Amino acid sequence: MVTWLQFILFGFAAFRLTRLIVLDQITAFIRKPFHNEIEEMNEEGELETYLEIKGSGLRAWVGELLSCYWCTGVWCSAFLFGLWMLWPFGAEIFIIILAIAGLAGVIESMTRKIIE
Q1: Domain hosting residue 70, numbered range
Q2: What is the pTM of this model?
Q3: Secondary structure letter of residue 51 according to DSSP
């Protein structure tokens, strides 16, 4: 059974891993074979980015998965929990690092909203 502390750590770790895969620039190479990023100016003169899913079949399915924060989050959560079940010590280190980064991201977002 998972303790409340472990549950919270898993939550922040899954949040950070999901964000890393779906949104962060450092992992764009993972998404590139499945997405085209299209940039357009809107009526207010602001640049907007749209995703276009490449291909069909499995390629399109992976592209859809990588464009959906909720979908990827389920798989990231399953991966982290499965890794923890198979290799508790190594997974725990990885989960704690991701959880700390996830919490730091939440604090940074909150701080930005307060300052703005």
Answers
A1: 8-104
A2: 0.87
A3: E
